[in-house]
Amino acid sequence: MSNVSHHLDEATIMRYAAGDLDEAFTVIVAAHIAMCDQCRQAVHDAEQLAGGLLDVAETEAVSDDAFANLMAAIDEKPELASNVHPFPKRNKISGDVPFPLQRLIGSELDQIQWKKVAPGISKHAIDLGGDSSSSLFMLNIAEGHAVPEHGHGGMEMTLILSGSYTDRYGQFAKGDIADLDEHEEHQPIVDAGAPCICIVATEKPTKFKGIVERLLQPIIGI
Amino acid sequence: MRAALRLVSNTESSAIELAKQHREWIALVGGNQDRAAFQSLFQYFAPRIKAMMLKAGMNVMQSEDLMQDVMMTVWRKSAQYSPDRGTVSAWIFTIARNARIDLLRKASSRPYDDVYELEIAADDKSSDDEVLQSERHECVSEALSELPKDQRKVIELAFIADLSQSEIAKKLDLPIGTVKSRMRLAYGKLKGKLEAVR
């Protein structure tokens, strides 16, 4: 299924494999790699590297009865004693929403409830629960409109789920991810033909010091 | 069996043989609930996982508990392990990483599970042969042993000690951009080697 032409930064691949991304970024990276064979393979490779590091890592003696305790715990639960535990068989995964996003926004893009925030721009906020320091939301932007600035100068990733936009890095269509350095400036404009639906992960603005940045935050509240 | 004996007697046994031994053990656990094979895996991995959790800042009791959880998951999911997904060490690393995320970070490892489930549902078995697996594994060991010390340190801190990118920058007194570029270089080293065998 890979027609993806804009991929994750390799430093991001490594951070994801190490488990170092905030929740919103973990979700958006998982959604991208669900659509991108190349980045999925890259994560896989990074995990092999991690396995190699585990092989040569330091060890710490476990308690003497650790193994006996573990087997006793396993024997207490008959369903574990025979560990035949095939992966929960699910029906073929369907819908036009990448699987890692389905528990957050459902499986169909046309079921999403949008809230108009500016001419040509609608937003759907996603509640990740807890006190995550990153936020995740969706944008639905009409053709010809500019994608609003929303990075607040922090880390930001945008994954295209439908439609496309173009900026100085080229065209971004379904499955493409903009994993840009926070200082790179760009002004994406949605291509003619269809609205562009994308999902955006950002660091929460409160992480950033400048009152100026916050004042510059677009009035649409993204 | 001969391989196993040689492995025990030869302290310089190669990473390749080790990986092969792990695959044999996990197949026995997954296929026959073989407790002796599981004990062998436990003896190898449990002390590594415990040390990894200690490094991530857990106390001794938490580290021991989480190690138990991880090994329990290994037992429970052993039938899901498939050699064409790479080494047993890497597979167990991902289980430990996910447990660590759920406990220490204010995040959930669900997205990782979703991707894993997707891969299993797609069942895109590449039916890799043993030779290719060994070659790939050799790439990883080679890449690791050839990495310059500074890059190696950065990925050890990230993967094993669970330091964030900014914590690594602070600890090593480096700009965050340098940490990022060392991560990219370390990955690039491996990628270059893997592309040669793919």
Brief digest:
The complex is a heterodimer of chains A (222) and B (198). Chain A has 222 residues and is of the alpha+beta class.
Keywords:
A: 222 residues; alpha+beta; Jelly Rolls; six-stranded antiparallel sheet; three-stranded antiparallel sheet; 20% strand; elongated; B: 198 residues; mainly alpha; Rna Polymerase Sigma Factor, Chain: A; Arc Repressor Mutant, subunit A; 2 domains; globular
Please give a structural write-up.
The complex is a heterodimer of chains A (about 220) and B (about 200). Chain A is an alpha+beta fold. Chain A has one domain (about 1-220): Sandwich (Jelly Rolls), CATH 2.60.120. Chain A is built from seven helices and nine strands, in the order ααααααβββββββββα. Chain A has helices at about 10-20, 25-35, 35-55, 65-75, 80, 100-105, 210-215, and strands at about 115-120, 120-125, 135-140, 155-160, 165, 170, 175-180, 190, 195-205. Chain A has a six-stranded antiparallel β-sheet with strand order 1-2-3-9-4-7, with helices on one face. Chain A has a three-stranded antiparallel β-sheet with strand order 6-5-8, with no helix packed on it. In chain A, helix 2 packs across helix 3 (about 35-55). Chain A starts with 9 loop residues before the first helix and ends in a 6-residue tail after the last helix. Residues about 205-215 of chain A have low confidence and may be disordered. Chain B is an all-alpha fold and about 200 residues long. Chain B has two domains: about 1-130, Rna Polymerase Sigma Factor, Chain: A (Orthogonal Bundle); about 130-200, Winged helix-like DNA-binding domain superfamily/Winged helix DNA-binding domain (Arc Repressor Mutant, subunit A). Helix content of chain B is about 75%, strand content about 0%. Chain B is built from ten helices and no strands. Chain B has helices at about 1-10, 15-30, 35-55, 60-75, 90-105, 110-120, 130-145, 150-160, 165-170, 175-195. In chain B, helix 2 (about 15-30) crosses helix 7 (about 130-145), helix 4 packs across helix 5 (about 90-105) and helix 9 (about 165-170) packs across helix 10 (about 175-195). Mean pLDDT of chain B is about 85; it is low at about 1-15.
